[in-house]
Model the fold of this input.
Amino acid sequence: MASVHAIPSLDEQYEFTAEAKRRLIIGGVVGVALVAIGSFLLASGVGEHAHEAVQGHGLSEGHEGAHGHYTWMTRFWANVWVNSVYFTGIAVAGMFFLSYNYLAQAGWSSVIKRIPEAMPAFLPVMGIIMLATFLIAGHDLFHWTHAELYVKGGEGYDPIIAGKKGFLNTPFFLGRMIFYFVSWYFLWRILRNYSLQEDLNGGTEYYYKSMKFGVVFLVIFAVTSSTAAWDLIMSIDTHWFSTMFGWYTLASWHVAGLATMTLVVVMLKEQGYLQAVNQSHLHDLGKFIFAFSIFWTYVWFAQFMLIYYANLPEETIYYRERFSGYGGIYLAPFFVNLFLNFVFPFLVLMTRDAKRTTVLLKVACWGVLVGHYFDFYTNIMPGTVGEHGGFGPIEFGMILIFACAFIWSVSTQLTKANLIAKNHPLLEEALHHDI
Amino acid sequence: MATPVNSKFLVGIFDDDDVVLKAVREVRESGVRIHEVYTPFPIHGLDVALGHPRSRLGIAAFMFGLTGCITALLLMSYTEKFDWPMVVGGKDSFSFPIYIPITFELTVLFTALGMVATFIISNNMGPTVKPLMFDLRTTDNKFAMAIDLEKNSLQETAIESILKQSGAAEVNVKQF
Amino acid sequence: MHITSAVRTPLVSGGKTYADVTEDVCRQVEGKPTREWTIAFTISALVLVYGSACVFYTWWEGLGVWGLNKTVGWAWDITNFVWWVGIGHAGTLISAILLLFRQKWRTSVNRAAEAMTIFAVVCAAMFIFMHMGRPWMAYWALPLPNTFGSLWVNFKSPLVWDVFAISTYFTVSLVFWYMGLVPDLATIRDRARSKVSRYIYGALSLGWNGSAKTWARYEYMSLILAGISTPLVLSVHTIVSMDFATSVIPGWHTTIFPPYFVAGAIFSGFAMVQNLMLIIRVVFKLEDYITTEHIESMNKIITLTGSIVGVAYITEFFIAWYSGSEFESYAFINRASGPYWWAYWAMMTCNVISPQLFWSKTIRTSVVWTFVLSVVVNIGMWFERFVIIVTSLHRDYLPSSWAMFHPTLFDISDYIFSFGLFFTLFLLFAKFLPVVNMAEVKAIIKSSSEKLPQSVSGVAKGERVTNPTFNKNVD
Done:
C-alpha cells in the first residue's frame, strides 16, 4: 500500500543478553561433548566393522583421496574443515552483499545493512582455525601434500599431481590462504569503519568512499572466490577439475549468507528490534533467497549435466564416488542437498504471501542453511574420509560449536553499533519501501 | 467489462497522479461508488485504494507452467522410451537429466503464452475491440475518474462538488 | 509517495511534463520520415537486397560456396549465429532482470533494447536456416512423428534443445515486447487524426483503455513475465553453450561454459544497445530521456560483464593447465600462439582490456568513447566465438587432418546479409513504433526528474479528434 507509513524511531541498540550468552555457551558445551563422545566412539571402533569389509577389497588403496593411514582423527579434522569452509563462506557473503549493494546503489537494503555488516567479523576466527587445521592435519585432508607423489620414479609418483606442483605446494597454498583472509577482513574493516563514522558524522562522504572500497573488494573477490574454492575444496579431490567450481561455490556461499541474513533479520524483528523493517523488505529478502537458490541450482546442474553428458572418466569419477562409491553412503546427502537447496525453497517461497510470512521465511532459510551444509559435506567428505564418513555425534557437535561461535560473533558485532545505519544517504528510500 | 448501455457518467479529470490517488480515497469515503479510474501509466496502490481484489493471474500462470512441464516430459518419455527407444551417446533411452532443458523451455513457453492469453481474455481485449474511452487524454497526460450516476444515490451536483473538492480540474458528463 | 534520495542522479532532464513525454516520443511516429532515416533505410535495404541474393545463391549452389572443409565443419555460420543470439540477450536482460531489480534507468532504453533483441534473434535464426543447406527441410528439426520417413528428433541432442530454446526465447520476447507496447499504441491511437492510422494503431492496441484494474493486472503480468524471462534468458545461451560443451572436443568441453556464455552475451548485447541508443538519442532528439546517467549505467554493466568474461577466460586457461590433460592444454596454447593467434589476441584485447577503460569516469561518460568501445566490444565478441569454434576444430587429435579455414565471398556476404536484415527491421521499428516506453517513463518522472515543471501534467500539444469513430458507443 502506498499509504504513509509511520516511521518508527531509528535509534535501536541491540542487547546481547545474559540469557542469550548462557544458551550459546550451553550449545557450545553440548557441541564439545558430542564431539568428544563421537570421537571416543570412533576411536574405539564402534560402527567401523562394516567398513572393514569394504577395505578388505582394497577399494580404497591407491585410490586418490583415501589414505592408507586413516584414523578417527581424519574424520574429526574433515568436520572442522567442512564447517570452516561453510562459515567462512557465510561470513564473507555478508561482505559480498554489502559491496554489491553499494555498487548497485540499492536503497531498500540500507535499513538492514548492519546485519551483513556484522557477519564478516567471524573471518579471523575462521582464518586461524583453517590455517591451524591445514598445518596440523593437512596430510589427512589434502592428498597433494604428500611428498612422495612428486618423487619421479618413486613408488608413489603421480604424474598428474606432480604436474600441478606449481600451484599446489604448501608455501604457495599457505600464502594464498593468508591473502584471502587478510584481504577480505581488512576491506571489511574499512567498510565497517566508514559505516560507524557515518553514524556519528553523517554526510555523503562515507557513502562514496564505501562504494569505492566495495568495488575494490568485488574485484579482489571476483578472483579470490574462485581460487579459494579451488584451494579449499576442489584440491581435496586432487585429480579432479571443473572450471565451474569457483562460481558454483560462490553461489553456494552467497545463498547460505542470504539465508543467514534473513534469519537474523526475522529473529531480530521478532524480538522487537528493527521496527523500520517492513513486509516489503522481508519480501525482497525472500526474493533474493528464492532467486539465488535457483541460480545455485542452475550452476549445479550445468556442471553436473556437462560432466554426465560428456562422460569422460576423469571427470565423472567425481559423481560416481558420490553416487555409488564408498558403499553408497553419499547418495543420501547428495539428494538431500538437491532437495533442500532447490525443490524446498522453490516451492515454499514461490508465492508472494509466503515471502511476507515470517514463519515460512524462517522455514525456507533453515532448509537452505541445512541444504548448503550438505552441499559442502558432499564436496569435502568423500575425498577426505571416503568410506569412513557418516553422520553421527561428531558431525552434530561440530556444527553446534561453529554455529554457536558464529552467532556469538554476530551478536557481539550487532551490539557495537546502532541497529540501523541512521545516516545512510539512501535510508529514507528504505524507510518508505513499499512494493 | 461489459459495455454499460444508456448509462450516464460523471467524469472527473485530474492533473496529477498523487491527487487522483488521494481523491479516490476521499470520494470513496464520502460514499460515492467509483466506476473506474483511467490513467496513462500505472499508479502504485491505486487498485488497492479502489478496493479491487488482487489479480489471480499468478495461479493461471502456474497452471499453464505445470501443463507445459508435464507435456514436455510426456512427449520425450513417450517418444524415446516407448515409441522408438534409442540409445544415443551411451545414454539410456530415458535419461532424465537430458530432458531438463527442453522441459524448462516448454514450461516457460506455456506459462508466458497461457498467461498473456488469460490476461487478454479476462480484460476483454482484442484487435477488434472498441474500447470505452471516457476521455482520450487519459492515454496522454490526464487521469479520469468515472462515476456511474445510475449506481449512485447522490445527486449529480453533489457528486460534482465532491469531485471538485477532491481536486478534479474539470468535471464532464459522458453518456453511453 | 516518491521518495528518492538526493544522492541519485536524475534520469530525466529538461523539466518534462507527461504531455511532453507523449509529444517527444510520438513525434517521429506521427511525422514524416526524416532525411537521416530515409538515407539509413535506403542503405540498409540495399544491403539487405544484396545479402538476400547471396543467401539465395548459397542455397541454390549448396554450402560448398562457403569455406568449410572436413576439419572445420562449423565456422562463420555458427559464429554469426552465436554472436547474434548473444546480442539478443541484452533486451530481455534490461526489461526482465532490471525490472526485478527495480532499476529505473531501464525505462528509457528497454523498448528499443527489446526490439533489438527480437531482430537479433531473427538474424541468428537465419544462420540456422542457412547452415541447414536445405531450409525447406527445417521442419525436420521439430518433434514430428516418423511418418515423414525418419525417426523422431533426437531429444538428447543439444541442437534440438536449441530449437526449443531459440523458438521459446523468440516467442516470449516478442510477447513481452508487444505487451509492453500496447499502452503506448493506445496513446498513439488516441492521438491519431487519420482514419488509417487510427484503425491500425487501434487494432494493434487491442482495445486498451488504461483502467486501474487493467493496469494492476498488467503490472502483475509483467512481473511474472519478467520472473520467467530471467531464467529463460540464462537458459538460452546456456543451451547454445551446450552445443559445444557437451562434446568431448578440447576447448569446447568445459563446465564453466554456460554462465560464461551468458555473461558474454549480456556484454555484447549491451554494447549493441549502446550503439543503437547513442544514435537514436541524437537523431530523435531524446537526450533528455537517454542521459549521461543511462550511458554510464550501461557502461558499468559492460565493464562488469566484461570482467566476468575475463575471469572465465583466466579460469579456462588455468584449469586447462591444472587438469593435466595434454589435449586441453594444447588447445589453449594453440589458441594463444598457434596460427590463429591474431584472433585470440583480438578477442583478449577487445573483450578484457578495452572495457577496463570504463573505470575512468571521463571515458564512461563520453559519448564518443562509449560508441567506439561498444563497437570494439562487439568485434571482440565476434572473435571470441570464432576463436572457440574455429581454433578448437582446426587442429584435432589427428595432425594429418589439421587445416585452416578461409572465408569465401559468400561467408562474408551472408554475414553482411544479417546486418542488412537487422538494420532494416530496426529502422522500421524506430519509425513506426514508439522507441521509448512512454507509460514507464511517465511513471518515473516525479521521482527521477532533474527538475519538476509547475504542473507535471502539462498541456497536450496537437489537435485531437474529440469523437473518434473507433469508439463505437459514442453518442
About this structure: Strands of chain B lie at 8-14, 36-38, 143-148, 170-175. Chain B has two domains: 8-54+133-175, 57-122. The mean pLDDT of chain B is 89.
